[in-house]
Amino acid sequence: MSYVLSPAQKSIYCLKTRRVSRRYSAGLVYRKKIAYGLIFAIIFLFVFYIFQTNSISSDSYKLQEYQKKLSLLQDEQRSLQLKLSEVRSLSFLKHKIEELNMVQAQKIEHLSPATEMAVK
User: Fold this and answer.
1) Which of 31, 70, 74, 120 has fewest C-beta within 10 Å?
2) Using an 8 Å Cβ cutoff, are 49 and 42 in contact?
């Protein structure tokens, strides 16, 4: 069974169907925009998470390396302090004096500057 529409009824039917299709297509466009926005946000957050995890792991690795260097430098400082205290000791100085064949000065003479000398 077929319906025959008058020209006025055809224009009303077309207007109604366009309105409905525009509403439907506007809803689809809005839903697509929301879906694309959510997908973009999820991808952005995933990439951000990857970069943050990488940054944290590299920083922890650097921290471990710096702690190792710090412990080595502290050990070196302790050994240098021991060496310094040994060098400053009186027995070490006496040993060095004998080793270098140094003798005690017998007579010490001090020079006095001339009184009339001036720098020009």
Assistant:
1) 120
2) no
pLDDT of residue 16: 55
Does some domain include residue 76? yes
CA neighbor of 104 nearest in space, from 94, 116, 114? 94
Write out pLDDT tens, residues 41-57. 999 999 999 999 999 99
Quote the CA–CA distance of 117 and 33 in Å, as a whole number.
96
Q: Which residue has the higher pLDDT, 116 or 65?
A: 65
CA distance 66 to 44: 33
Contact 17, 25 (CB under 8 A): no
Q: Which tokens sit at 80?
A: 């240098």
The pLDDT of 83-103, averaged and rounded, is 87
Q: Tokens for 1, please give them.
A: 């069974």
Domain assignment present for 102: no
Handedness of CA 35, 40, 45, 46 (dihedral sign): positive
Domain that holds residue 69: 7-97
Evaluate whether residue 69 is within a structural domain: yes
